[in-house]
């Protein structure tokens, strides 16, 4: 679904400041479409979804940084992006909590998705892992988001 379609379905006029962030969001939307149509022959089933997770994370982080870090957008525009589902409000809520500032996706903290009922391997601090071991999350391809 394109960004314009999302906006039409939302049926609200975008608030002031939308024209400043729209080009970047269109870029993310173009990358997302490319990732969705990218051929996935030779990849594992989960590997085909990794680029989509990364773009989703980048888009949400962009909105989060604009509002919380740089304070470059208004509360109305931030809320509009959440209501139009341009950014993931659940992921952003986790970023506000200590220890989850760099969380890659919500599946990495859901214990039901792992074999042993724990967090994902990418949530283990790199200092506690072998230095020569390459760690990739099964769900999103993250190489360590705990710090």
UniProtKB/TrEMBL annotation:
One GO BP: mRNA splicing, via spliceosome
Record keyword tRNA processing present: no
Coiled-coil intervals, chain numbering: none
Record Pfam families: BUD31
Cellular compartments per GO CC: spliceosomal complex
UniProt subcellular location: Nucleus
Claim: tRNA-binding is one of the keywords in the record: no
Alphabetical UniProt keywords: Nucleus
Family according to the record: Belongs to the BUD31 (G10) family.
Protein name in UniProt: Protein BUD31 homolog
Species whose genome carries this gene: Mesorhabditis belari
Organism lineage: Eukaryota, Metazoa, Ecdysozoa, Nematoda, Chromadorea
């Amino acid at each position: 679904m394109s960004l314009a379609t999302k906006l039409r379905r939302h049926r609200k006029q975008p608030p002031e400041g939308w024209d400043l962030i729209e080009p970047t969001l269109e870029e993310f939307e173009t990358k997302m479409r490319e990732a969705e149509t990218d051929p996935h022959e030779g990849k594992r089933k989960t590997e085909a979804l990794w680029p989509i997770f990364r773009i989703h994370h980048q888009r949400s982080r962009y909105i989060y940084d604009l509002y919380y870090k740089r304070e470059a957008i208004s509360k109305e525009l931030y809320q509009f992006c959440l209501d139009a589902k341009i950014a993931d409000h659940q992921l952003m809520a986790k970023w506000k909590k200590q220890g989850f500032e760099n969380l890659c996706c919500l599946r990495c903290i859901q214990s039901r998705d792992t074999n042993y009922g724990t967090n994902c391997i990418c949530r283990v601090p790199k200092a506690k892992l072998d230095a020569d071991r390459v760690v990739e999350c099964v769900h999103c391809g993250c190489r360590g988001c705990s710090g």
